[in-house]
Amino acid sequence: MRGPAVKCSPSRPACEFAGDVRRAVVAVVGWLFDRGDHGSTAATLWAVFAAYCEMHVFVPTNYLSTIVEFAVSRGASRERVLRTAGVTRQTLEDPEARISTEEFMAVLQGAIDFSGQPALMLQLGAQLRVTSHGILGYAAMSSATLAEALALATKYVQTRSPLLVAHVAVKHRTAVLRVDEAAVLTHGRRGLFELCVGALTSVARFLTDDRFRVRRLLLPYPEPPYLAEYRKVFDCPIVFDSAAAEIRFDASFLAMKLPLADEAAKKLAAQRCEEELAAIASSDDLEQQIRARLLKARGTMPSLDEVARQLALSPRTLRRRLKTHDTSYQRILNAVREELAVQCLRTTDMTVYQIADRLGYSDQSNFGRAFKGWTGRSPQDFRDTECQGSTS
User: Fold this and answer.
1) Partner residues linked to 178 by β-bridges
2) Can you tell me the distance from the alpha carbon of 37 to that of 41, in angstroms, rounded to the nearest whole number?
3) CATH number, position 342
4) Which residues of 73-95 are buried (b: 16+ CB within 10 A; e: fewer)?
5) Which whole number is the average pLDDT over 171-178?
6) Is residue 308 part of a domain?
7) Which residue segment(s) compose the domain that 41 sits in?
8) This prediction's pTM
9) φ, ψ of residue 304 in degrees (nearest 5)
């Protein structure tokens, strides 16, 4: 008797392939169960599929066509960008499609590489119109004040890109719009942040009739060789190698009345954003929601109880639901710490002590032991042998 066969095409979107994998796993586990295998083989298959899902965040193609067409206008080959990323023309033109993080970042980096324009994403972000951001752009445009517009933008940013999270805070008359990663990014990371901070600044200027000004910009990567391009876009002091991306500006801008304010239009657009967010939340894997909260943390990682409260669950329910997925909070926390440690060693000049502090370890030696357990090498050996000079 033969097991079930599955045909998967590498040209199909990764989220469809993941669905095929899941269906195949269900079929194979059922087949094994019928044959009397109620133990390790079936458990192993589920563990492999869970690991696959844990590594993949699926991204809507909202900005995909815009990125590709902008690269083409700067000399890139559309076919080459898509082929290198493994994305089809059909996917590019499908507004409902979703692709993996790896595919999205490969398109973004390919657009930069094949256009020969290292500052391509910075330039694109600065040129994006508010309507480029879909219904969220219309919600922001219809808001009464800049504070209201930014509150909507940060609340619903996941409807446009699940790779980033944002929030606004005010400290001593300075407003801080902070952007963090909601997924562990490596290749193309700088370009994504450039696109984001450029777009946010451009939108704020449009909404305020070009009166908005950035006081200080912080970015979480080393200074690139095209600093002059940053000066053209932001015209303010810029600090690199920061813990996160921060756009700092005078808090008085938050109270500024917006010229296109329309309460009825804003409510309709915000309602649509809420529906989109609810649809995303209902389909999100619980592990992915936890990972997003851990990735947003800095220094002290939240406890299981704190994450449960954020998810509107009791700690007991969260433990039980994770157990049904054959995982635990500690396992997810360790995986996030490992991924972040590797990212920091590869893409930043942070010291081992700074990385340990970033990941919530009480001292460097504890972090060193944990990292060696994950990789078989010390953090410094890992950086020296594999990652020297890697800042992309």
Assistant:
1) 167, 246
2) 7
3) 1.10.10.60
4) ebebebeebbebbbbbeebbeee
5) 93
6) yes
7) 14-56
8) 0.67
9) -60, -40
